[in-house]
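Please annotate this fold before class:
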Amino acid sequence: MSETQVKQQSTAAFYGQAVLSFAVAIVATAIGIFRLEADAWVRAFLGIAVLYLVTSAFTLAKVIRDRQEAGQIVSRVDQARLEKLLAEHDPFDKL
């Protein structure tokens, strides 16, 4: 039989670093937009653009992850079928 693959988990430090990095980037961008010497509608437009960019990035990451997971499931099913065929095959059956 095949070995089951262990799902790789991120370490707590990597997860924390990713969350902290995201928070710093959002806060720095918000401060930059707030302190920008421009009309309120320009700052509002930039704020909406940043929010749209963030939601688009999350959606793209989810789509990529879902596609990768679907490919792994298909691969496992194909491998299970092949293993079943090989287990049932008797090379000396037709001799």
Q: What stands out?
A: The CA atoms of residues 69 and 75 lie 10 Å apart. The chain has a mean pLDDT of 85. Helices lie at 12-35, 40-88.
